Amino acid sequence: MNIEIQGRINVKLNDDKTSTVVKSPNATGNLLIPRFVLQGKTKYIIKSLSSDSFEDCQIESLTFPDDSEVTSFGSWCFCRATIKKLQIPSKLQELSSNWCLNAKEITEIEVSPKN
Questions:
Q1: Are the beta carbons of 88 and 66 closer than 8 angstroms?
Q2: Model confidence over 53-79: pLDDT tens digits?
């Protein structure tokens, strides 16, 4: 099941109570990827950004809370995106091939001191 959260971010809810940010063509502005998505009374921890998540999007900044559980950015997740500031969360372990291909406007990357 896919749902939309703030900032027009699309999230896929998984059976194991985790979730994944999926293709979100209408995401724009200053985005915060929350630690979890609440659906009913169930919390789905966001674990990854899938391939093509923010392809061609107009993003000012993408940030994560200090307790983020995101561990991977999929291939082409920021392909051709207009993104200026990107934060790398503390638990990020994997940057798949071409994760930021042609994202030419990134001027600031902030890596969590815990990473």
A1: no
A2: 999 999 999 999 999 999 999 999 999
Among candidate residues 87, 89, 83, 88, the one with its CA nearest the CA of residue 106? 83
Reduced to 3 states (helix: H, G, I; strand: E, B; else coil), residue 68 is coil
- In the chain, what are the helix, strand and coil shares in percent, each to the nearest 5? 5, 45, 50
Residue 14 DSSP class:
P
Give the model's pLDDT for residue 9.
97
Residue tagged 């990473």 (tokens): 115
Q: Residue type for 52, please?
A: D
Judge if pTM exceeds 0.85: yes
